[in-house]
Design goal:
heterodimer, A: Rossmann fold, 2 domains, 5-stranded parallel β-sheet, two-stranded antiparallel ribbon, B: Rossmann fold, 5-stranded mixed β-sheet, 28% helix
């Protein structure tokens, strides 16, 4: 039996026999975002996992501040910060097995780094040197996607292809609240549900699409509710609760792996920084609103839990801070070196075999560069 | 550049049949070839090009998708990322536009974006062009949009044999190909032997359809029969038209692939007088 046949045939029934094709009740998200930290269930969380999440969150926060600093030093063209959203980023990476695929958006370099990729490679796109700094197949990380939500159908297609081949692979695709208005979001979720593809869609609802608040983006009860219309379960989670995020994403990944189909997860979080270093958030939101979220910071929430359970001492704090600082220093040092770029790369990878037009253009550029280099040498000679 | 020699007559076949046969042979030869699109399964496509594929290869290889062109091409990108070789069908020329962003922003650029690590061996089949009395959005000559995009090959067949060979070559290509199928020629017939299909040539080569010495006509796809007809017509008398200097229309070079343009092949076949033309927006 083919994967397509497993879905069962659907034929329009005569009007009296009409009934919903699936019961919508089990697909509905909870009324409140799911939380673990600060609730009774937090006590059951594995201490090893809590410590791991803590170290990753501290490292992630330091990564965000370092990358933002690099934009001010002219070493990054742009940086869309995920400060305040580290729990979502880290949980997305940790929920996946090595053979699984991650489909990040431009704001998700932290998830890429948390998956184990070298931060310098992760930041290549935002440095402006090249479009992707790693081999996606080697790391099972799709290129950071800049056009909104267009990577979601890629995740569906990849997961579907893996299932057709009989491979035990899940794809996790990340998108923001603004991206849910795009047609590709709709088409991806629809295809995923129809094909029962092993995909998890993670929407980080950080409140804003650059300056536009969620109220101007959607009239849906929640973004998680959109899942019901496609026939997949929607989960609403506190995106600043790293333990809840890890639990819900891990469940969704496991469900997809077992053939249960896709899940839409809405993580309610907040973008603490402006959209990017080039944005001015004071034009569209009051500081008081940002400050209100500081009490609900993902690191703070985790620290409270760890402290309460006696799992956080000064040594652990110091160790986490030192590890983060080592990462930041290394990143700073390597990003401050000018990369060697080959202008001929512009023509090399457009087609498998270079066309005669591209060969001509490459030759023209090479000749111009040679002339420029000779002129530079001559002018240097004169200066001496 | 190649010169097409007449094949031994076998039996009449239509271009649509040759295209279907090319899909079938590609799927039989390579299990990574998957066909997806609207109505490509039980119906065999609105032009019946995919007729029988779902029956022969199963619905997992020839898949009726939801009605959403960006979703079709977007999922094909993901399938290609995982090593499959998708052939997607856009139902009509103007119905392909919702997939434009996926085509331009991802399909065409993925190889370059990843420095060759992730090629996109996707063939996008688009029934195109007018001349069949079709309604609006069913008669667009949309090649110019695709030809302006680096990373894509854009090809269009003019004959039944072309259709088979070009589609096989497109599917075998590791680069994405926009394969424009002239609707007006779907039911054109030629003696063609489906049991001994021609060797598959690389795409991007010009071909001389009719030899002569006085003037050259350069064109592609659905305009080829039109230009061949013009070339066969009696020469206009001196002083009667802007082409009065042409003693005869006698040579017609056809480009089977608008992009990449086989400049050397076309140039080598040019006479001292050259005209190019196609039914297309400009």
């Amino acid at each position: 039996m083919t994967v397509m046949e497993q879905r069962g045939a659907y034929r329009p029934a005569p009007p009296p026999a009409w009934q919903p094709r699936t019961d919508p009740a089990p697909l509905l998200p909870d009324a409140e975002p799911y939380r673990v930290l600060g609730t009774e269930t937090a006590g059951k969380a594995d201490p090893g996992l809590l410590r791991r999440l803590y170290a990753e969150l501290v490292r992630g926060r330091r990564y965000n501040t370092q990358a933002t600093a690099l934009t001010k030093q002219g070493r990054l063209a742009v940086y869309p910060s995920s400060t305040g959203q580290e729990a979502c980023e880290v949980a997305a990476a940790l929920a996946l097995k090595e053979r699984d695929w991650l489909f990040p958006s431009y704001r998700d370099t932290l998830a890429v780094v948390a998956r184990g990729l070298d931060p310098v490679s992760a930041l290549t796109l935002l440095r402006g040197d090249w479009h992707t700094g790693y081999d996606p197949r080697e790391h099972r990380i799709a290129p950071l996607c800049t056009p909104l939500a267009t990577q979601l159908p890629h995740a569906v297609g990849l997961a579907h292809a893996a299932r057709l081949k009989g491979d035990d692979v899940v794809a996790l695709a990340m998108v923001g609240d603004g991206g849910t208005s795009e047609g590709d979001f709709h088409e991806a979720l629809n295809f995923a549900a129809v094909w029962q593809a092993p995909v998890v869609f993670l929407v980080q609802n950080n409140g804003f699409a650059i300056s536009v608040p969620l109220a101007k983006q959607t009239a849906a009860p929640s973004l998680a509710h959109k899942a019901v219309g496609y026939g997949m379960p929607g989960r609403l989670v506190d995106g600043n609760d790293a333990v809840a995020m890890h639990e819900v994403l891990s469940e969704a990944v496991a469900r997809a792996r077992e053939g249960g189909g896709p899940t839409l997860v809405e993580a309610v979080t907040y973008r603490m920084e402006a959209h990017t270093n080039a944005d001015d958030a004071t034009r569209y939101r009051p500081d008081a609103e940002v400050d209100a979220w500081r009490d609900h910071d993902p690191i703070l929430l985790l620290e409270r839990e760890l402290t309460e359970r006696g799992l956080l001492d000064d040594d652990i704090r110091r160790q986490a801070a030192e590890d983060a600082e080592t990462m930041a220093a290394d990143l700073r040092e390597r990003m401050n070196q000018d990369p060697l770029l080959d202008p001929m790369d512009l023509f090399t990878h457009v087609y498998t075999e270079q066309t005669s037009q591209l060969r001509e253009q490459a030759a023209q550029l090479r000749a111009e560069l040679e002339v420029a280099s000779e002129e530079a040498d001559a002018s240097e000679g004169r200066t001496r | 550049m190649t010169t097409v020699a007449a094949k031994p007559a076998t039996k009449p076949a239509t271009m649509a049949q040759a295209l279907g046969r090319a899909l079938r042979d590609s799927m039989a030869e390579d299990p990574s070839v998957h066909v997806l699109g609207e109505d490509v399964g039980a119906l065999g496509g609105v032009f019946r090009v995919t007729d029988g594929l779902a029956r022969e290869f199963g619905e997992d290889r020839c898949t009726d998708t939801p009605l959403a062109e960006a979703g079709i091409l977007g999922t094909a990108v993901g399938m290609a990322m995982y090593g499959l070789r998708p052939v997607v069908e856009m139902q009509f020329d103007a119905f392909a536009y919702p997939a434009f962003e996926q085509l331009i922003s991802h399909v065409a650029r993925m190889r370059n974006r990843t420095k060759g690590a992730m090629p996109m061996p996707i063939t996008v089949r688009v029934p195109y062009g007018g001349g069949i009395g079709g309604v609006e959005h069913h008669s667009d000559s949309s090649e110019a949009y695709y030809m302006a995009t680096p990373g894509l090959h854009v090809v269009t067949p003019a004959t039944v044999a072309d259709a088979y060979g070009l589609l096989r070559a497109s599917i075998a290509s590791d680069d994405p190909v926009v394969f424009l199928e002239p609707k007006r020629l779907y039911w054109s017939k030629a003696d063609w032997n489906p049991d001994a299909p021609q060797s598959v040539e690389p795409i991007g080569r010009a071909v001389v359809r009719r030899s002569g010495r006085s003037a050259t006509l350069i064109t592609y796809g659905p305009s080829v029969p039109v230009c061949l007809e013009a070339a066969a017509a009696p020469a206009p008398r001196a002083g009667t038209s802007k082409w009065s200097t042409c003693a005869r229309w006698c040579l017609s070079t056809t480009r089977r692939s608008p992009r990449p343009y086989d400049a050397r092949g076309v140039r080598s076949s040019c006479t001292s007088r050259v005209a190019s033309g196609a039914r297309a927006e400009r």
